[in-house]
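I'd like us to work through together how a protein chain folds, taking it slowly. We need material for that, and I hope you will provide a protein of your own picking. Go ahead whenever you are ready, and we will take it from there:
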Amino acid sequence: MGRLEPLGQGFCAVVFAGLLLYFAIHAVGASTVPLPAVAFALAMANLTAGLSLVPIGLGVFEGTITLLLVAAGVVPGEAAAAALLYRAFNDGFMAGLGAIVALGSRRRRRPLAEGPSTRSPQVSTSAKYPR
């Protein structure tokens, strides 16, 4: 079970990302796109953004989603709004979650106790060494 846990978490992340885009499309009023088309658009957008040389695929990701949603029958303005809404919510959620985790781990951290001294050990000069 231990080896499959990351796979399950990755699968859940992909499903939730697809649902987030699906809900973003519905939020802007384009409710005619089937879920498989949304999943395909998201997969291709992630692929093209990963292959591009632009940092985090900024613009490439949104452009790919917009293009594929327009091909699926969504009005261009609604497709672009859905792509930007998805990107803003997804990145904003991840940044917020990271901030919460960082603050939580900061509170749990204990101050470091004074460790061993950095001074060199004192060697007694009065000790007799065998010759």
Observations:
- The longest helix spans residues 76-108.
